[in-house]
Amino acid sequence: MKKWYQKLHWQILIGLVLGLIWGLVASVAGFTSFTVDYVKPIGTIFINLLKLIAVPLVLASLIVGVTSLNDMAKLSRMGGKTVAIYVVTTICAITIGLTVVNLIQPGDFLPEATQQELMSSYQQNIEGSSQSAKEVMDRSPLAFLVNIVPQNFFSSASDNGNMLQVVFVAILLGIGIIQIPKEKGEPLIAFFDSLNDVIIKIVDFVMLIAPYGVFALMAGVIVDLAGDDLGRALDLLGALGWYSLAVIIGLLLHVLIVYSSLFRLFSNMKFSDFFKAIRPAVLVGFSTSSSSATLPVTMERMEKNGGVDEEVSSFVLPIGATINMDGTSLYQAVAAVFISQALGLDLSIAQQITIVLTATLASIGTAGVPGAGIIMLVIVLQAIEVPVQGIALILGVDRILDMCRTAVNITGDAAVSVAVAHTEGLLGEMHLEDEE
């Protein structure tokens, strides 16, 4: 049995802690330039490696899954379950966020002087998000469906933000392969099956450098936040402490209430065993703040350790990484009410219901847009007639909270894959020897 420090999740956790310490020391001792020039790029390389294998992994594994399924009714049923569960968990997340923020009232703890300082400091960062939000809102109601079908697959495959298009093409190819004579389709199936095995092996290689990549990413986050003035960063965190606390409490409640209920209803897997299987993916997602970049790790952990069949993981997880944003949606609700409170605006019940509906739709409509979290928030604020300039109040701590909500997004994707696999009879035995 491996010693505790030889286990991947502990190595990644140690990397996170050491990265945090390095970032703090660098800010105090004036090593920020060195960290940005020589440490942070290691983290960027790690993220790029994960993004590099995401598209081929989804393409190969989904084609293999569809061809082995050989049942269109089963495929459509699995798709319906996936989308339905994602929508329900998103609505639950937003509702929990609204409940927590209304109970804590974090906007009442923000001093007026701090409010004015934040508004002036981050005002220039809002214009780009407002323009992107306007573009999203100007789209036709069916734009989301139109965007799923690509004009050029190679163009779609060049951008991880177009993962739903890759999923669509993979399903189309898989259906096409099973419709031609078996002897003609077998060489293609064998090719994609071998490609899938190769990419899974590459994921194992990439994870060998995960602790170093996570260290570099965490150090970069702290340096970006604090710069050469750690005191100012601590003051900012203190001023927005109640808001940050409300977001984190909401995220924890969502995981403990909604996901645990999901397991009790749709799975016989222990919730604790699930977390043992998914720990490395959650930690990588926390450090990268990207569900898409973490997708190869999530798929590998759920197939290898979680017992989720490849047919399910290759279908449910890519869709989840694109449209399932439970953590982000909960953050929208807390942020919208916090901004309203800080600006002295009282939201009616109707406006808070509008937040639920708008945030649910926005979580799907802006899935492929960079910086989706802030863009979604602009759309929500405009829907309830709250000045979008209020976003400046939360931008200072957004990067840290983004790490937390991404970890919850990834946990949600994996939890839904377990639920769908169980209902389809495709949930096998867990393999947690390496995680114990």
From TrEMBL:
It is found in: Cell membrane. GO terms for biological process: dicarboxylic acid transport; L-alpha-amino acid transmembrane transport. Keywords: Cell membrane, Glycoprotein, Membrane, Symport, Transmembrane, Transmembrane helix, Transport. The keyword NAD does not apply. The chain crosses the membrane at residues 12-36, 42-63, 83-104, 163-181, 202-222, 242-266. This is Na+/H+-dicarboxylate symporter. The lineage of its organism: Bacteria, Pseudomonadati, Balneolota, Balneolia, Balneolales. GO terms for cellular component: plasma membrane. PANTHER family: AMINO ACID TRANSPORTER, SODIUM/DICARBOXYLATE SYMPORTER-RELATED.
